[in-house]
Amino acid sequence: MSYRPLASLGRCVPLLRAGLIAGIILAAVAYPIVAAAGIGAKVGAEFSEHKADLLRTTLPAETSYVYAADGKTLLTMFYEEYRQYTKIEDIAPSMQQAMVAAEDSRFYQHRGVDPKGVLRAFVANSQSGGVSQGASTITMQYVRMALRDSATTPQEVQEATAQTSIRKVREMRLALDVEKQMSKEDILERYLNSAYFGHRAYGIYAAAQIFFSKKPKDLTPVESATLAGLVKSPSEYDPVTSDQQEAIGRRNYVLERMGQLGYLSPEAAARASTEPLRIDQSDPRNDCASIPQRHNSLGFACDYLKNWWSAQPAFGDNRLERIDKLRRGGYRIVLSIDPRIQEAAEKNIDAKGTTGSPFAHGVVVAEPGTGRVKAMAVNRTYSLDTSENGPTSNPEADPKVKANFPNTVAPLLGGGNLPGYQAGSTFKMFPMLAALDSGMPLSTAFDAPHRYRSEVYDGWAPSNASGAMTGRQTMWSGFGKSVNTYFVWLEEKVGADRAVRLAEQLGLRWRTDVDKAQASPEKVKKWGAFTLGVSDATPLELANAYAAIAADGRYCEAIPVLSITNRDGTPATYRTPAGLEREVAKPRCRQVVDAGAARAATDAARCPTGDRPARGSCGGWSTADSVRGTVGRPVAGKTGTTDSTRAAWFVGYTPELAAASFIADPDNPFNAVGDGQSQKPIDAVAKTLRDALKGQPTRQFTPPPDRMVG
């Protein structure tokens, strides 16, 4: 097919005023790929002004920011496209002018489609025999970017960016409609916030930050011309990695156009063209691994945030949708981690894990009554770089497999997909609480033998850790001394199924095949060993479960945030099954057990710590009697060790805070930590609570009611 430019031009000019038909013919002339026949019908059927209205209301993807609890300290960001939406009044006038000069000098004269630009492109393309020059206005380019950003399917993305005449006609039609609904200032603002400048810089805020480490309002005319010049071809004119002469040449072209358009005087434009290219590049942090080194330990809390976020229906129907929302939604997220409590937790864990020990030692602190996580510390460095890690301690693993220390991003403290660690006698809390909630009093007594044969559990015969535990025990003394045989008997009375289901209501989840099978309806009633803590649990789960007891039986889901706000500053919300709208970051609490039963459990739980219960006797000794003296205020809790001390635990709480600490080998659960290290979790919790509550008024536990004493 041949083309006769002058004859075609003569026929086309009268039609430039004819709305959509003009757009179709202009596209067919400027881009001689297909004839106009048929395109008009397709465009007319598929597009209407409601699409332009959608483009008017659709905002581009925006970076989400994560702050420390002070709401000021930026920890990291999440983004696919690094962008922060910036109002036109916060963009330097020189930047606005430079973009018009570079991309669409007649922007303020045309109505979305520029006939002169189309004719100019037509002549250039006819002379070159191809498409050497485009006719896209800023409005048309904005339409293309907005269609891409609002696309919900791969096909829509392809249609928005495909190099076809149909796409060009769509852009023209929509550009005309958009200009009916939006002012030139609004269109330019949207364009400046959507354009890609290279180096992951989407929008003018990101470009100003990445190339010049400043805000858009502070850009100079020379810097503005440099950035405006990038949009045409970010890689070709890249001032960082490409030949700077190309970037300088493009910048100077923009400066010259600014002079011709009256934005700069000819002298100022000429002077600016002689300036060297000065780049002050910055690399915006992204995701948890880029948290500053001074806040490195918060990488584990950040990772927990991601896992928590991916489970929230408020942000999408599945994990992929929710993470995409995090990376594109422009949220402002404030973590619940308290800097003072976090510092206390970090100070009181064994740091050997960062220098060569396979044993992970960590602590998690939760707030009773809210479920907010106040500290997450473990003796590991949060890092993706495991190249210097030694071989794993697991003898069954491939020798090439790296250990989890000193560097790891594994969720060792909970909130991820790891099962956790066997928690030993910390689980005695669940049958005791279930018994109390069923009406059995604290004074419920049993002559506990050294070894107890259970007929309920098919002849299973566990024994106590010490002969000194033999004798008549109550809930106070049985819990304080951690008498196995007493609690197997107590679990028989209340039912293992009731204890297990209560633990589930307090947030515990079964992740291993063995635990899932034992917790199944078919087997749960025979799970006698549950009370001895044979199931895996995480510090996050146990800290929050015990926090519910401190809150008089009111369980609150664990939550890592103080606030989440949308890009417009409003709180992020979700709709409950009952149709109520609630803020995502607000505590989600429910009464799980009777308040009197929870207070009774706390009274018994004061016995292991060396504290004095309000209503009963601990029987003379306890498993962690140093805790009360260290904390210096009323405190409850429970120790836990597994067979051969493969793992050691302590969970403790005051009315204000609950903390769980463990020490174990995450790579090899059969690698025993040994009795010599069982004191470390006890000390970590006691000292963390002491330091976290220093200077605060002492609060007392509420004594249990008479009906729970017996």
Automatic annotation (TrEMBL):
Q: Which UniProt keywords apply?
A: Carboxypeptidase, Cell shape, Cell wall biogenesis/degradation, Glycosyltransferase, Hydrolase, Membrane, Multifunctional enzyme, Peptidoglycan synthesis, Protease, Transferase, Transmembrane, Transmembrane helix
Pfam families documented for this protein: Transgly, Transpeptidase
Which family would the database say this protein is a member of? Answer: In the C-terminal section; belongs to the transpeptidase family. In the N-terminal section; belongs to the glycosyltransferase 51 family.
**Domain (Glycosyl transferase family) ranges:** 75-258
The record's Gene Ontology biological-process terms are: cell wall organization; peptidoglycan biosynthetic process; proteolysis; regulation of cell shape
Any transmembrane segments, and where? Answer: 12-34
One GO molecular-function entry? serine-type D-Ala-D-Ala carboxypeptidase activity
Q: What is this protein called?
A: Membrane carboxypeptidase (Penicillin-binding protein)
What InterPro entries does the database record attribute to this sequence? Beta-lactam/transpept-like (IPR012338), Glyco_trans_51 (IPR001264), Glycosyltr_51/Transpeptidase (IPR050396), Lysozyme-like_dom_sf (IPR023346), PBP_transglycosylase (IPR036950), PCN-bd_Tpept (IPR001460)
